[in-house]
Amino acid sequence: MLPIIETDRLILRAPRAQDAEPIAKYLNDFEVAGNLARVPFPYLLSDAKAWLRTRHSDVEADDANFTIEIKGEGYVGHIGFHPGPDGPVIGYWLGKPFWGRGIMTEAAIASLDWFFDTTNAPVVYSGVFHFNHASLAIQQKLGFTQSGRSWLLCLARDAEVEHIDTELTLGVWKARRT
């Protein structure tokens, strides 16, 4: 069962059916969807509903997905983990009206604290498309380091895009959190 994680400003909780409309609203923006690998554009309400049907609250930590809410404002984005070829991968997105307010950094710290406390994973992987400087800056603040470059399909762009691969080790995370 996924916990509810609270920070000073945020609530991270399991996604639910009533999140479909804000998910579709924020992901049907090319500036958001074009930064993500697995999100088509346009992004329709039916896409959000279909994705939500795949989410369950009784999942393992390496397949956990959290809705991000700002206390008193509601749904603003998403952060989650999924199994990757080398180990767990963290991914995230935020609706454009909420960019530049430190929300994703706060959500990522809380979710990574939970993840490393819940699992025995020695590393978490992530990455950004080469043009997504804001997301790369968040990852660098968190302690992620670049581990290589690859090409990754971006559904919204219908193209293979250069990707900066990153990783965060448990040791680095613990050292930064003390």
TrEMBL record:
Pfam (any one): Acetyltransf_3
Domain N-acetyltransferase: 10-171
PROSITE patterns assigned to the protein according to its UniProt record, in alphabetical order: GNAT (PS51186)
Keywords in alphabetical order: Acyltransferase, Transferase
Record GO terms (molecular function): acyltransferase activity, transferring groups other than amino-acyl groups
Similarity comment text for this entry: Belongs to the acetyltransferase family. RimJ subfamily.
Protein name stated in the entry: N-acetyltransferase domain-containing protein
Organism for this UniProt entry: Devosia riboflavina
Lineage of source species: Bacteria, Pseudomonadati, Pseudomonadota, Alphaproteobacteria, Hyphomicrobiales
